[in-house]
């Protein structure tokens, strides 16, 4: 939601707020003064691959999956998500999920706790990370760098196809 606000707000402001409401729901809201969304698309804006095409949209493009992923996560948590928007004025995206946080706090695992056993990974295999978010890619590369796998990174699918052809990698 924040990424879309950044993409579609050329001037003005973006506000992000999260908190617990009076019904003990976690409520998060992203509002912006961006291009806005026509009312006839409010229900469909969370559909996969939907993109609003007009001359005011950001040329960075995208896949039209961001809001669909957010909705999927909210649905998994049995929450609700909705949008209020006016073209030329901006948008407000809001989601709520039940607050299931208990007062008992469990200790956080140490940074170096292993989630998987690298002993079971074949040392002669390569992993190709296809991720355009540099932080996510760096995290995955750090995590997999502790294994005996050969780790490679590209940002986009087209680069991945080219890399696979050049390196003659086998997909499995």
Distance between the termini: 33 Å
Count of individual helical segments: 4
Let me know the average pLDDT: 80
Order of helices and strands: HEEHEEEHEH
Structurally, the number of domains stands at: 2
Explained architecture:
This protein has 172 residues and is of the alpha+beta class. It has two domains: 2-98, Heat Shock Protein 90 (2-Layer Sandwich), CATH 3.30.565; 118-167, no CATH class. Helix content is 24%, strand content 24%. It has helices at residues 2-8, 66-76, 134-145, 157-167; strands spanning 14-20, 25-32, 80-86, 90-98, 126-130, 150-154. Strands 1-2-4-3 form a four-stranded antiparallel β-sheet, covered by helices on one side. A hairpin with a 4-residue loop joins strand 1 and strand 2. The longest helix is centred in the last third of the chain and has 12 residues, at 134-145.
């Amino acid at each position: 939601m924040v990424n879309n606000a950044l993409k579609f707000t050329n001037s003005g402001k973006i506000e992000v707020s999260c908190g617990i409401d009076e019904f003990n729901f976690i409520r998060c809201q992203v509002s912006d003064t961006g291009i806005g969304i026509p009312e006839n698309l409010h229900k469909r804006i969370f559909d996969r691959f939907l993109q609003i095409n007009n001359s005011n949209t950001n040329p960075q493009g995208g896949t039209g999956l961001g809001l669909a992923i957010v909705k999927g996560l909210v649905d998994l948590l049995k929450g609700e998500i909705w949008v209020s928007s006016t073209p030329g004025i901006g948008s407000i995206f809001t989601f709520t999920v039940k607050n299931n946080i208990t007062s008992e706090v469990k200790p956080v695992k140490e940074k170096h706790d292993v989630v998987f056993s690298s002993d079971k990974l074949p040392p002669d295999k390569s992993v190709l990370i296809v991720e355009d978010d540099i932080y996510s890619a760096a995290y995955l590369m750090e995590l997999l760098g502790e294994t005996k796998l050969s780790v490679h990174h590209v940002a986009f699918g087209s680069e991945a196809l080219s890399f696979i052809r050049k390196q003659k990698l086998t997909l499995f």
